Amino acid sequence: EEKYVIIDITKEGTTEVEVEDNINNETIVNIETYLIVYNSVNATGSMPSQIKLKDQPIEILENRFVKEGYTFINWNTSSSYTGTEYNGGDSYTANASTTLYANWKDTSAPIINDVYLSTNWVAGNDVKLKIDATDNIAVTGYQITTTNAEPTSWR
Fold first, then answer.
1. Among candidates 31, 36, 61, which has minimal Cα distance to 50?
2. Distances (CA, A) of 37 to 40, 101, 117
3. Counting Cβ atoms within 10 Å, is residue 106 exposed (0-12), middle (13-18) or buried (19+)?
4. Which of 27, 67, 81, 120 gives the lowest tally of CB atoms within 10 Å of its CB?
5. Which of 61-65, 83-87, 99-103, 140-144 has the least mean pLDDT?
6. Counting Cβ atoms within 10 Å, is residue 9 exposed (0-12), middle (13-18) or buried (19+)?
7. Per the confidence metrics, is the pTM higher than 0.70?
8. What is the C-alpha separation between 155 and 141, in angstroms, rounded?
9. How would you class 89 by CB atoms within 10 Å of its CB: exposed for 0-12, middle for 13-18, buried for 19 or more?
10. Distance (Å, rounded) from C-alpha 120 to C-alpha 129?
11. Angle at 57 between CA 82 and CA 52, to 5 degrees
């Protein structure tokens, strides 16, 4: 006759569980567990932590956090995003507790104030304006000069 014990493990560390058996009437089983915590990195919402059993893989949760102006990219084991990356549904197999940090991409539109193009514009030539993440402005094929004059017309 086999006997089963169902236990609720809600903490990390080692949990001792007594199990009756048919030979010794009592056996002590140590169950090692690890905690997975999800860090929102300044987003709103909540996600439960997970308990992982030793030598048993666990599925990483899908993101439930929301951060206005940002798109969720993935989870990372490092707050500087230099660690291991995980996506929801990936398998976590390490026998170690970890914190997974939400990795966000800023999708808000850049704010451009008072940008005017003034060129000796020639019909048929494209003027390409590029503003990079550091607010540097580059106009392909043209020299940039600054002035406070407002444009008289747009073409």
1. 36
2. 10, 9, 50
3. exposed
4. 120
5. 140-144
6. middle
7. no
8. 18
9. exposed
10. 15
11. 85
Two structure tokens written together for 117:
């193009």
- The letter for the amino acid at 24 is N
Show Cβ contacts of residue 10 under 8 Å, excluding neighbours closer than 6 positions: 51
Rounded to 5 degrees, what angle do the CA atoms 68, 72, 75 make?
A: 135
Query: How does pLDDT run across 92-104, given as a tens digit for each residue?
Result: 999 999 999 999 9
CA–CA separation, 92 vs 25, rounded Å?
36
Task: Give the residues across from 72 on adjacent strands.
Answer: 104
CB within 8 A of 26, min separation 6: which ones? 18, 19, 20
Pairwise CA distance, residues 147 & 104, whole Å: 37
- β-pairing verdict for 70-76 and 85-86: antiparallel
Answer for the pair 107, 69: CB distance below 8 angstroms, yes or no: yes
Between CA 79 and CA 98 the distance in angstroms is 11
pLDDT surpassing 60 at residue 6: no
